[in-house]
Amino acid sequence: MAETSAKISSLDPVWRRVREEAFDMLRAEPLLGGLIHSSLLHHSSLERALAYRFSLKLASGEMSEQILREIADEAYASDPDLGQAARADVTAVFDRDPACLRFIQPILFFKGYQAIQAYRIGHWLWQNGRKDMSYFVQMRVSEVFGVDIHPNARIGRGIMIDHAHSIVIGETAVVGDNVSMLHSVTLGGTGKEDGDRHPKIGDGVMIGAGAKVLGNIHVGHCSRIAAGSVVLHDVPHNTTVAGVPARVVGEAGCAQPSVTMDQLIAGEI
């Protein structure tokens, strides 16, 4: 196992870094040895480690760890994009969250990252016709992490959800690549209509805490939605919107709002 892990690590810089940080944490805090070994060092790849975390966190009296582990292992084995998205997500959290000092933190401790990885397995189940099981995963993610993402929603790579409490993303929502959002964000509908009824979020968008984006509307690439805003209409590319209801208050202020995480509005300070 150790030899296999070393070979894989040499080809996978993210997994190599996670393992190096795991050994550092083990030396600094031996009391976490059981957690570190069972969650990380015991596994031969990031995918296997994530499958273990998925099964451990979502298991209950209704569904065993073994069954969930088999589901997750099958998902990662059949769809390599799941593992690549997980690497992009952990890199995004490390780059954008000043509280994240190591790659190992999101994997072990950050519920936003863990909820997104669990959603990705639920989405894989949905795409493969296993909708009832995907609903079970959605339910457990909501119960365990306080994050409610419909398994049919489409979410890109490089996602950072900071704090993540009370995130809601509806069935027909689409979230692009390299999007950042804070806690209590809702991507929801405006009524009880069927069909395509949820927001489409472009690449590089930053959504502030408590923002509500409602209806089948489009938020343009690299735009900013200010905290507490209620967005009911399309948002142009590279702009900042704020207010209830939200209106355009200026340009985005930078090329990549989701990366800089600048939430100040020019002229307000």
TrEMBL record:
Name by which UniProt lists this protein: Serine acetyltransferase
In terms of SMART domains, this protein maps to: SATase_N
**From what superkingdom does this record's organism come?**
Bacteria
**Pathway, per Swiss-Prot/TrEMBL?**
Amino-acid biosynthesis; L-cysteine biosynthesis; L-cysteine from L-serine: step 1/2
Species the sequence originates in: Cypionkella aquatica
Query: Which key words are in the record?
Result: Acyltransferase, Amino-acid biosynthesis, Repeat, Transferase
Name any Gene Ontology BP term. Answer: cysteine biosynthetic process from serine
Catalysed reactions, semicolon-separated: L-serine + acetyl-CoA = O-acetyl-L-serine + CoA
| Entry-linked InterPro entries | Hexapep, Hexapep_transf_CS, LbH_SAT, Ser_AcTrfase_N, Ser_AcTrfase_N_sf, Ser_O-AcTrfase, Serine_acetyltransferase, Trimer_LpxA-like_sf
One MF annotation (Gene Ontology) recorded for this entry: serine O-acetyltransferase activity
Query: What is the E.C. number?
Result: 2.3.1.30
Domain Serine acetyltransferase N-terminal residue range list: 14-118
Instruction: Spell out the family assignment given in the record's similarity comment.
Output: Belongs to the transferase hexapeptide repeat family.
**Pfam annotation, one family:** Hexapep
Give the GO cellular component terms, alphabetically: cytoplasm
